[in-house]
Specification:
The chain is mostly helical and 296 residues long. 69% of the residues lie in helices and 10% in strands. A 3-stranded mixed β-sheet has the order 1-2-3. The longest helix has 30 residues. The two termini are 35 Å apart.
Length: 296
Amino acid sequence: MSNVGSAAAANRGRLAVVFGLTLAIFAVEAIGGFAANSLALLADAGHLLTDVAGIGLALLAIWIGSRPASVERTFGYQRLEILAAIVNALLLFGVGAFIFFEAVRRLAQPPEVASGLMIAVALVGLAGNGASLWLLRDAQVASLNARGAFLEVLSDFAGSAAVIVAGLVIVLTGFGAADAIASMVIGVLIFPRTWRLLRDAVDVLLEATPKGLDMALVRSHILEAPGVIECHDLHVWTITSGMNVVSAHVIVAPDAEPATVLDHLCECLSGFFDIEHSTFQIETADRRRLEEVGHA
């Protein structure tokens, strides 16, 4: 099984374009930050560098994940997308902490900042990040890696806006500490969304019930299938973004046709819940008694 149909692979082209845009904006902001002596610009450039690494890691995970399944790895390498999302989150936490620390240090002694250059470079970053957000607006709904990239670019967009505001404050009031304050804003912006990304990725690794999926409703649909009298050992989990899997033991009536029951269950889960990969163990009523003894 390959990940040709996974949500991440479907958006590989957009991620590649965003990667190129982010790398270009990083170069502009890094050079501009040193030239303007702006911590806010350097902080945003540092965040962008982490984004370059994170998106590059996501693209690498998608490429490796496209390798076919084997007898050793029956689902192939699709979980690498989730591992890449976790690495992205950890990198963002580290960058946010560093930016915040450096901003606090600069508040004590605000340096001279070339505010005009600072604003011009930030406007370039704002435009580039806006283009990346537009490219990822749909992809981020279906893929954790695309969502990670979207959140990173979104915080970059907000960071560029904060740099512009800080530059305008310095121009209009001469308040040099605005640069450090903008850096703190950029650092703070990173944490809440990064935490959600990390939590969602860990949920996948823990094989938690996919978000937005009502297990009671899944069970109800299974029990409503013709010939089904009971359902137990029902599990639903996620292999990678956009690929949910279900397994269940289903007890059928003595006169039920197993093949017909299976066809109905698979069509129901595929059509109503968009779960294409389902495994059902068809049992008779006396099998449940044997299972209870075995599980005791």
